[in-house]
Amino acid sequence: MSKNKHDRWDVAPWEALRVGPDFDLAAFDRASTPGWDGDKDDAETAMAARGAELAELQERLYAEGRAGGGRGVLCVIQGLDTAGEGGIVRHVMGLVDPQGVTIRAFGVPTEEERAHHYLWRIRNALPQPGRIGVFDRSHYEDVLVVRVDELVPEDVWRPRFDEINAFEQEITAQGFTVLKFALMVSYEEQGIRLMERLDRPDKHWKYSPGDLKTRAKWDAYQEAYADVFRRTSTDVAPWYVLPADKKWYPRLAVTEILAHTLKTLNPQWPTGDFDVAEQRRLLAATMATSTLKASLEETDPSLTEAIQQKRELLKER
Ligand code: ATP
Hints:
Bound molecules: adenosine-5'-triphosphate
CATH architecture of the largest domain: 3-Layer(aba) Sandwich
Low-confidence stretches: none
CATH superfamily of the largest domain: P-loop containing nucleotide triphosphate hydrolases
Strand content: 5-15%
């Protein structure tokens, strides 16, 4: 990849972070910044530069969906407490029009949800075509917390890996592009972030004494996550595992991977099912000559057809 001030990727993040057969979570450096040779300031500059492009791509996807297109993007975000899922939603999805994004968080299932298959609430939350859906936690909780806390026996949760793969295959065939992001903080960094929540009264609302119980099961969670990556990183729905000790890195990487995905999808502006010249003539008939003249002067010079017709309409006045 070529490098400039905004682009300091040595290896593209969708290659550097994608889980392959040799992925080893135990050896994964959570303070690293795979593929990126810049610092935090460079990352912020790069994200800002990518923002406008991401916003346009998202608008094109939305427009395509409005015109009957069936494609959508689903971002699944997983991570242990304090890993920064909220920051991803705020900083990455904050770059695009919120009307085109559907965010859904999955907590402990309600009584109604528990009465159904675990994928029931997931299916119900799938975004409309043209949208970017974000799952803050997801069906993966049903092979993570459910496994670690022994909420169901192993012969119930283990077959879920295959079931989840089949589900993701199915929704991909329906038109979704599924991106799965796992934010991995180190044990030490999690301790620092939890301590900060205790230190600051304005962060107490984010803390729960139960967080320490979850932290005590660190090794079991690591094992459960390692299995998730091993069993459910597929060609159609790969996992991207993001080192999350530096908060800015996963934000940057998700922005880049999402922009790359949308560029690959290459959604097109729909063409209107009306005669533009005819509509312009009818509209111009309702406008004062001075207003039409002003509109001509403000027309983007690259829109030559529009300029020509406005000139003709003005000549006829
Ligand atoms: P967070 O820790 O993300 O800030 P929170 O404490 O605000 O979350 P919620 O978002 O309401 O709480 O719920 C998250 C909790 O729900 C997590 O502890 C998660 O493990 C649990 N959870 C999610 N899905 C399931 C599931 N299928 N079965 C059991 N527990 C689940």
